[in-house]
């Protein structure tokens, strides 16, 4: 039986999961692939730690560069993460003309253009299914299943931590910081949760998907990002009254003027399938001219689900090696010479529906002033909701709008904020009434 | 630019969709594939019909055999359907060593073993993604994305007609025959709906998926099939009271004793994601040891969604041709020599939870008699629900059970049916409390 030698760099949670599958499912993999996938070396700084996997003698090593330079190794699996040494090792692997698999979304979002170009030039394959949505086969779906279709938009819940926190807040009416503390206690959030709760991790994934879906280069900094830390129980409650749920979505739309690519909290109808994705689960809806909508749903993180996606990539590349078909599918979904430069629309230029909540002094004429300013900026009101009168302090006025342009909304809100009847900064949450349509 | 010539057999709804995509998205496909996919011939008995697609002169022909024998054609797309001429043409294509794409689930369910063997022997590829779940990439997910994982079970809504009818009945409280009539009027059901509503179409798809998921040959006749024609509004209402929805599911489980493969109406918890799949949509949950559960969701039928899946297969095979990698992936997910013979468990041997509804004479001691018989057969009752007393006629007694064996259930129900206090045949609906666990 033919052999494919694999070198694994980094044996943390997902790396260990990959090793487990390669070792424990060895026979199963052989029966499917028709070749033996051999984990020749695993490089990690800590080779003494008990990982619950039995490695043959000599498999665990400390020097990742030696693994990358080993002429007997066919596929390198980079599970180190981050943009430092991982980037160096990936580029070294590519220049050694070895195939590579990675789940490193931060690296691909920031340096994907460089890395893809290097892989293309050297004629090697680069698998990165596990970089987005864990075990959901979203990259394979875009690059292969939907190859004949024109993708028009995507909406995804791509960060389990944020979805866990928002689900907690929604179901138990607790504030962001309490839900975050609970997520941390349960291992669903990092000690420093910034990357997750501020939407950056979601944006990394959106950058990768947007580039693949529309066959374009993307500059990560062009993506508009807003996290969930300012979402309060009162807004979740209002959303519920209007038949909405609040989710942190990665949204990308292919429009005439350019591509929308944005990450922010969104109110979506409760009967949108994404509304029912709870806890740390991920899901994505991909809309295409022919398919209508497809949705994928599953664990977006975790040791074994992510490892399963990594092994899927390893096998894909092994099958290419076995049949002499490396680069059978272009890395970025379309032929390198056809990759386009499409502008990402500035957030000010996008149009959507909005939810505003103003804290105002409870006095006559307040609504007239606010609605007057909105009207002056061409923002059309769909409904207004005023809570009962209070003798002292401020009361909330909630407004839902028809389609409006973000620039107009910002201008109007800053005028309204400066009114002396308005207490606190107005709250703005974007509403996607029907994220299936364009 | 290299050229791949395609011959399309059958230009009905989906065939026309395939032609549309190949013609209208020609440039898009070239930019992704790096080769030109040329629709050289379309064979159909009716070449005069206006299909809304403009074919070049000479493309439309009546003789399918001539297309299959054309040495210039690389890939044959069989869109005729059924088990007659389609089978002949597919076998001829294979013996001509041409690649083939089909969506013909009835044919593959009945003659898959023969056809796969022929293709394997002749060294040709056979794409059949569109045979199950329309645009949902379920076959690709099983054969490729989950290649490193051991699939433990699958539960799917795989027939849009049944799901449309059940959704209608559930949401509007109308009876099966009225919902069916409406489905027919709206084009969601055929004039002869037997294949759909009796679960046969679903079972065709289940046969294909079961064979791929567990790497086994399957005999279609071993699949237990029960349709939805006996589902009544009263059972849908009871289901709702218990927090369940009724769906026609394709269920397949990989157990120690063999494989379960069955199609029948099931009560599932309302918060199971499959419960929220309404109308003509399809969805499938695949559970694996590593991935946990993934769910795919989308249009399981229809011109363009199905055509999109067909084109995905055409491109996959074209890419194999372009890189000389035909049969890169084994057709049946594992290497032919590793395909196993696993017994399909007779329905009598499976264990699940049950819902029973008995129509009984309203007199004291009835429940004691019924529960006594259930107890004698080792069937443990979870809850009993008796509707208010009626002065005349029969009243329903509803019983939910713990896990019980189908054989015991059948025996007990036939004893209960013979009691003179029991009117009508008892109603039995299987309950899957948690179709994620095994």
Task: Please name the defining characteristics of this protein.
homodimer, 14 helices, alpha/beta, Rossmann fold, about 35% helix, Alpha-Beta Plaits, about 450 residues
- Any low-confidence stretches of chain A, pLDDT <50, length ≥5? none
Q: Any idea of the CATH topology of the largest domain in chain A?
A: Rossmann fold
Q: What coarse outline of chain A follows from CA principal-axis ratios?
A: elongated
Number of strands of chain A: 17
CATH architecture of the largest domain in chain A: 3-Layer(aba) Sandwich
Structural account:
The structure is a homodimer of 438-residue chains. Chain A folds into three domains: 167 residues, NAD(P)-binding Rossmann-like Domain (Rossmann fold, 3-Layer(aba) Sandwich); 162 residues, Dihydrodipicolinate Reductase, domain 2 (2-Layer Sandwich), CATH 3.30.360.10; 85 residues, 2-Layer Sandwich (Alpha-Beta Plaits). Chain A is elongated and about 85 Å long. With 438 residues, chain A is α/β, with parallel strands linked by helices. In chain A, strands 7, 8, 9, 10, 11, 12, 13, 14, 15, 16 and 17 form an eleven-stranded mixed beta sheet that branches. In chain A, strands 3-2-1-4-5-6 form a six-stranded parallel beta sheet, sandwiched between helices. Chain A contains 14 helices and 17 strands. At the A-B interface, helix 1, helix 2, helix 6, strand 12 and helix 12 of A face helix 1, helix 2, helix 6, strand 12 and helix 12 of B. Strand 12 of chain A pairs antiparallel with strand 12 of chain B, so a sheet runs across the interface.
């Amino acid at each position: 039986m033919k052999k494919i030698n694999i070198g694994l760099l980094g044996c943390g949670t997902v790396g260990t999961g990959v090793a487990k599958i390669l070792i424990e499912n060895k026979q199963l993999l052989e029966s499917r692939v028709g070749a033996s996938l051999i984990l020749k070396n695993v490089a990690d700084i800590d080779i003494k730690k008990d990982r619950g996997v039995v490695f043959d003698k000599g498999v665990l090593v400390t020097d990742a560069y030696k693994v990358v330079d080993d002429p007997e190794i066919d596929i390198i699996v980079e599970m180190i993460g981050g943009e430092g040494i991982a980037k160096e090792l990936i580029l070294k692997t590519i220049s050694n003309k070895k195939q590579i698999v990675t789940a490193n979304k931060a690296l691909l979002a920031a340096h994907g253009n460089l890395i893809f170009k290097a892989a293309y030039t050297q004629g090697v394959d680069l698998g990165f299914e596990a970089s987005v949505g864990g075990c959901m086969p979203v990259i394979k779906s875009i690059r292969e299943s939907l190859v004949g279709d024109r993708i028009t938009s995507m909406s995804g819940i791509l960060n389990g931590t944020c979805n866990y926190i928002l689900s907690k807040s929604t179901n138990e009416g607790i504030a962001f910081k309490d839900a975050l503390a609970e997520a941390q206690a349960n291992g669903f959030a990092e000690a420093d949760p910034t990357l997750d709760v501020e939407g950056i991790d979601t944006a990394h994934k959106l950058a990768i998907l947007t580039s693949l879906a529309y066959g374009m280069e993307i500059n990560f900094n062009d993506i508009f990002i807003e996290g969930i830390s300012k979402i309060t129980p009162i807004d979740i409650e209002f959303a519920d009254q209007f038949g909405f749920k609040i989710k942190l979505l990665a949204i990308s739309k292919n429009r005439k003027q350019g591509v929308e690519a944005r990450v922010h909290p969104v109110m979506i109808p409760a009967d949108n399938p994404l509304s029912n994705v709870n806890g740390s689960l991920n899901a994505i809806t991909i809309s295409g001219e022919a398919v209508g909508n497809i949705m994928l749903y599953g664990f977006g993180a975790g040791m074994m689900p992510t490892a399963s996606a990594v092994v899927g990539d390893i096998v894909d590349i092994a099958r290419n090696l076995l049949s002499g078909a490396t680069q059978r599918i272009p890395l970025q979904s379309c032929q390198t010479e056809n990759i386009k430069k499409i502008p990402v629309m500035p957030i000010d230029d996008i149009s959507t529906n909005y939810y505003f909540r103003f804290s105002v002094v409870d006095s006559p004429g307040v609504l007239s002033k606010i609605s007057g300013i909105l009207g002056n900026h061409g923002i059309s009101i769909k409904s207004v909701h005023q809570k009962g009168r209070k003798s002292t302090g401020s009361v909330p006025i909630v407004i839902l709008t028809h389609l409006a342009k973000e620039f107009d909304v910002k201008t109007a809100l800053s005028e309204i904020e400066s009114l002396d009847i308005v207490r606190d900064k107005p709250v703005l949450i974007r509403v996607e009434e029907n994220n299936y349509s364009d």
